[in-house]
């Protein structure tokens, strides 16, 4: 929607999550019918009228879907609907990406489960159990969609999709498995190595049907997964974060995206693990020395970057700011303070190393001007949510800041963005975002520009969600921090944010769903996404003006299945996160 | 604080040496941080703006706003926009767009609130069939992008709808007023025609009188409420107020000898245009219906949650007083639920208003679609988009302002 949605009032949310119709198991069917359908005269009328309506509508829909509908436009263009114009010979990348994605979904769910179990243990209550019924009620829509898509596409590409699905399921299950209890010992290692199985399976299948080009990317994916497994075995949160981010980077940027910025993502992915190592190296004497060294490396890195890439006015600003930060870190290191200089130095070294490595192994991606279909919708929604999250976090903190200028700036940005529809921002992206750059040449791809404005848009909504989470943290927490003599920054970082962010996970899923639905607007500015594929299909000579409703029903069903599954999953998440209170 | 501080008596005024240096003074730091932030933001905006202006000048695109007085180069059917007229300017076209956006948003909001409330209550019904059907409705429409719903309704109405077409050979359906030749409603798959009021001589006076009458009616309403509260008699305030309003209106109408009259819609000779009354544009029906369907599903969830959030004792108390099901909802539960629901529902209204910007897919000429057409007709894009954003901002601010006032009234009444 051109609006995006803000999470509904927490009071309402709470009432909704606790709602459920009571079931009386000791009723006979006759009693049930009497109490639920005909308990008084107007309920009887309602039952008859709406029952008849439901039957008629159901009959009409079934007759349409099974007998009258002509699914040929969908069947012949199934690939177009799912992946757009992705080059045929490079499909291996998508397979690896899909497997990694389902693996990380499994890991995420398993990690949440682990968390809620730990909390339940702390609170001394029964850990929430997930029954098969819960799983089915969450995922049936997606499963039905995939089955329908496959059923429509029978005869197009008969056996590979099934194997791929199997691989995805195994990957997700295996990633879920490595978060389970017996993590140590041979069994733990075995569990941890499980994600390799679907990768190997997919590799084997694919190598029989097409040339397995781009082996480097494939190798990287396997390395990332192995890393993930080992790290989970070692059980260090920062390492897990790094490895997960690495897998995400590999799947998103290196495997399929344009390669120019892959080193930035790679650096960002490795940073948590590097910091973790740093904080564990226990050198009391070398601290200030390494701090000095680190800030020097950082300063040198900034100078090197600016000189190497050519001096422009923007880079001069970067140079000044970078040198200022380096001096600040230097002063900190001289006075024996915390090793911020060292951290900056580590980031610089990592950035240079990954940049160099990225140059060494040629990681050409498929430029995302060639992406499309449902795949693009998912990627745009995921990427812009990820990118918008830090911005939204800063905006939310700024809006609650005690400094009036920050507060005004953040509030006006948030309200400005929330007051205009997304389509106006997208039109801006389509028509003149390139003009804001000094060169003025409009050579950014439309997808990049729309990703940029969607991130801008989404950050304002995420800021409001995070603000809601911040407000929900009891004031006593801040006061306790003050009583301990903590600085405001530390109170925010160590006390308030962790609690606030945990509380907003379900709303963030809601924001993701809303953003996923919003990506359908890309079709208006001419990006080939799921809905936009329709126009191409109906421009084909065979299907001109034919099967318009059928393709639309298919697209609507696709959007519905993904959104519905995620909203069910977020409700389940909310229940399991609420376990300790 | 320096090492000498233990020597200083606690009550003694602090000397200059005990003050922190200015770079550790929190007050200075706060001001510095704000000035720096402001400087960076202003700097970035300045750079972006100068880039934009430079690029536009280089490409020879006008950066002025005088384009609003030029001719738009196209026309919109059934909008009252006369392309040959004296004031056929871009500015007039934008106003047409604003009017159409307002028309779609206001009717959409009303319909969505009505259906959403009914469906929300239906989801809590004791009737199994109703409960399941409304759940199906909510879960379906909530999870489909509004753009898809708009296209769907548009396609359904255009191709396979039960409504008649609007072409010379296939005339639209008409519902006449019995005993006259006038039409009460003209309906087709694309356009509707409805009666409207026509202002004649003395209409200005009449409307001023009606405004005063409205104020008097409000006073009467308060008076009846007070009478009822003081004496316990039935207030009948709706009857009293309406009676006052219509009484004064009738007197004014007769005295001013018919200042306003009805204008009824009719299909023109050519069979392509609706003459008289109010005619909706193409796509209006599809857009409004689709947005109402979509937003109703969200409002239904909010209403359901708010009803559940009303304390259970309230409902039980109403039962204990032997109120009927309807009375329980009307007098006990809904007023309290409305108070809880209002902020979220305001949000939905804002969303619906912003979603009218998707009308371009059903060719309804609201402000975004017209902006796109105008840009396509060589009007400068940056200025047009700026105007578009400012318009939406003012819509959003107006709606939230009005409804926040309503909300504040509600809240104050609720407090004890």
Describe the structure.
The complex is a heterodimer of chains A (about 575) and B (about 425). Chain A is mainly alpha-helical and about 575 residues long. In chain A, about 75% of the residues lie in helices and about 0% in strands. Chain A has helices at about 10-15, 30-35, 40-70, 70-75, 80-85, 90-125, 130-150, 160-175, 185-195, 195-210, 215-235, 235-255, 260-280, 285-310, 315-335, 340-360, 375-400, 405-420, 420-430, 445-470, 475-485, 490-505, 505-520, 535, 550-575. Chain A is globular and about 85 Å long. The two termini of chain A are about 35 Å apart. Residues about 1-5 of chain A have low confidence and may be disordered. In chain B, about 60% of the residues lie in helices and about 5% in strands. Chain B contains eleven helices and eight strands. In chain B, the strands form three sheets. In chain B, strands 1-2-3-8 form a four-stranded antiparallel sheet, with no helix packed on it. Chain B has a two-stranded antiparallel sheet with strand order 4-5. The longest helix of chain B is centred in the last third of the chain and has 34 residues, at about 380-415. Mean pLDDT of chain B is about 80; it is low at about 1-10 and about 410-415.
Name a few traits of the molecule.
heterodimer, A: 581 residues, mainly alpha, 25 helices, 74% helix, globular, B: 416 residues, alpha+beta, four-stranded antiparallel β-sheet, two-stranded antiparallel sheet, 11 helices, disordered N terminus, disordered C terminus
* Binned strand content of chain B: 5-15%
From the alpha-carbon coordinates, what is the Rg of chain B to the nearest angstrom?
30 Å
Average pLDDT reading of chain A: 76
> First CA to last CA of chain A: what distance?
34 Å
The oligomeric state of the chains shown is heterodimer
Shape of chain B: globular
Residue stretches of chain B low in confidence (pLDDT < 50, at least 5 long) are 1-10, 412-416
**SS element count, helices of chain A:** 25
């Amino acid at each position: 929607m051109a609006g995006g949605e803000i999470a509904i009032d927490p009071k309402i949310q709470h009432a909704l999550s606790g709602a459920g119709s009571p079931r009386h198991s000791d009723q006979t069917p006759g009693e049930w019918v009497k109490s639920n359908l005909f308990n008084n005269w107007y309920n009887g009328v309602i039952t008859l009228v709406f029952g008849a309506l439901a039957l008629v509508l159901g009959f009409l829909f079934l007759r349409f879907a099974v007998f009258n509908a002509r699914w040929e436009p969908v069947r012949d263009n199934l690939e177009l609907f799912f992946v757009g114009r992705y080059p045929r010979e490079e499909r291996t990348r998508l397979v690896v990406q899909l497997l990694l994605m389902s693996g990380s979904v499994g890991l995420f769910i398993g990690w949440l489960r682990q968390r809620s179990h730990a909390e339940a243990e702390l609170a001394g209550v029964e850990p929430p159990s997930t029954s098969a019924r819960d799983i089915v009620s969450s995922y049936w829509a997606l499963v039905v969609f995939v089955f329908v898509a496959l059923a429509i596409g029978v005869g197009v590409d008969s056996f590979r999709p099934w194997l791929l699905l199997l691989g995805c399921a195994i990957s997700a299950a295996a990633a879920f498995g490595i978060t389970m209890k017996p993590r140590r010992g041979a069994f733990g290692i075995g569990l941890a190595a499980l994600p390799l199985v679907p990768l190997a399976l997919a590799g084997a299948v694919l190598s029989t049907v097409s040339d397995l080009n781009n082996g480097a990317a494939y190798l990287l994916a396997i390395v990332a997964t192995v890393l993930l497994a080992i790290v989970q075995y070692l059980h260090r949160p920062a390492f897990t974060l790094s490895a997960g981010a690495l897998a995400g980077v590999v799947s998103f940027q290196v495997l399929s995206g344009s390669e120019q910025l892959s080193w930035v993502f790679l650096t960002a992915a490795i940073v948590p693990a590097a910091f973790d190592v740093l904080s564990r190296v226990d050198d009391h004497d070398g601290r200030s020395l390494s701090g000095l060294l680190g800030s020097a490396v950082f300063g040198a890195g900034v100078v090197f970057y600016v000189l190497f890439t050519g001096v422009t006015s923007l880079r001069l600003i970067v140079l000044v700011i970078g040198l200022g930060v380096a001096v600040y870190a230097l002063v900190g290191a001289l006075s024996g303070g915390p090793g911020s200089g060292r951290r900056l130095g580590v980031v610089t070294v990592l950035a240079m190393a990954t940049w160099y490595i990225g140059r060494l192994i040629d990681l050409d991606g498929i430029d995302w001007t060639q992406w499309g279909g449902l795949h693009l919708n998912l990627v745009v929604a995921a990427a812009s949510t990820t990118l918008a999250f830090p911005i939204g976090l800063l905006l939310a903190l700024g809006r609650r800041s005690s400094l009036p200028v920050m507060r005004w700036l953040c509030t006006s940005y948030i309200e400005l963005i929330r007051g205009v529809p997304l389509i106006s921002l997208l039109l801006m992206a389509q028509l003149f975002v390139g003009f804001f750059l000094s060169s003025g040449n409009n050579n950014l791809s439309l997808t990049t520009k729309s990703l940029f404005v969607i991130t801008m848009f989404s950050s304002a909504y995420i800021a409001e969600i995070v603000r809601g989470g911040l407000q929900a943290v009891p004031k006593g927490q801040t006061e306790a921090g003050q009583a301990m003599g903590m600085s405001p920054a530390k109170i925010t970082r160590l006390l308030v944010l962790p609690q606030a962010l945990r509380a907003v996970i379900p709303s963030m899923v809601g924001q993701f769903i809303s953003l996923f639905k919003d990506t359908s607007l890309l079709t208006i500015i001419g990006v080939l996404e799921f809905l936009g594929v329709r126009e191409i299909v109906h421009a084909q000579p065979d299907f001109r003006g034919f099967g318009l409703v059928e393709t639309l029903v298919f697209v609507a069903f696709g959007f519905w299945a993904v959104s519905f599954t995620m909203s069910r999953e977020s409700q389940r998440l909310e229940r399991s996160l609420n376990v300790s209170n | 604080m320096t090492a000498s501080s233990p020597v200083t008596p606690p009550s003694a005024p602090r000397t200059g040496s005990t003050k922190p240096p200015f770079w550790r003074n929190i007050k200075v730091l706060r001001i510095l941080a704000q000035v720096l932030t402001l400087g960076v933001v202003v700097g970035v905006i300045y750079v972006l703006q100068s880039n934009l202006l430079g690029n536009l000048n280089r490409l020879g695109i006008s950066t002025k706003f005088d384009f609003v007085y030029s001719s738009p180069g196209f026309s919109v059917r059934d909008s009252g926009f006369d392309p040959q007229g004296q004031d056929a300017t871009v500015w007039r076209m934008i106003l047409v767009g604003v009017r159409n956006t307002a028309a779609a948003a206001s009717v959409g909001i009303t319909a969505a609130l009505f259906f959403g409330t009914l469906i929300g209550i239906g989801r809590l019904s004791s009737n199994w069939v109703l409960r399941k059907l409304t759940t199906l409705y909510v879960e379906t429409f909530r999870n489909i992008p509004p753009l898809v719903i708009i296209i769907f309704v548009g396609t359904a109405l255009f191709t396979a709808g039960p409504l008649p077409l609007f072409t010379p050979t296939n005339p639209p359906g008409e519902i006449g007023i019995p005993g006259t030749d006038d039409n009460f409603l003209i309906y087709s798959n694309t356009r509707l025609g409805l009666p409207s009021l026509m202002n004649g001589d003395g209409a200005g006076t009449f409307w001023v009188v009606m405004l005063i009458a409205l104020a008097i009616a409000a006073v009467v309403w308060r008076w009846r409420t007070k009478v009822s509260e003081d004496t316990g008699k039935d207030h009948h305030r709706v009857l009293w107020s309406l009676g006052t309003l219509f009484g004064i209106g009738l007197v004014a109408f007769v005295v001013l000898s018919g200042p306003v009259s009805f204008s009824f819609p009719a299909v023109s000779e050519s069979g392509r245009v609706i003459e008289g009354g109010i005619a909706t544009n193409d796509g209006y029906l599809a857009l409004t219906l689709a947005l109402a369907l979509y937003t109703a599903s969200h409002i239904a969830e909010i209403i359901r949650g708010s009803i559940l959030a009303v304390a259970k004792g309230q409902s039980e108390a109403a039962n204990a007083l032997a109120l009927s099901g309807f009375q329980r909802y009307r007098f006990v539960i809904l007023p309290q639920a409305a108070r809880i629901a209002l902020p979220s529902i305001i949000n939905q209204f804002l969303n619906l208003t912003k979603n009218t910007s998707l009308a371009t897919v059903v060719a309804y000429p609201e402000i975004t679609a017209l902006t796109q057409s105008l840009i396509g007709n060589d009007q400068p894009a940056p200025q047009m988009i700026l105007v578009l954003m400012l318009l939406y901002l003012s819509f959003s601010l107006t709606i939230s302002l009005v409804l926040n006032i309503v909300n504040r009234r509600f809240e104050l009444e609720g407090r004890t």
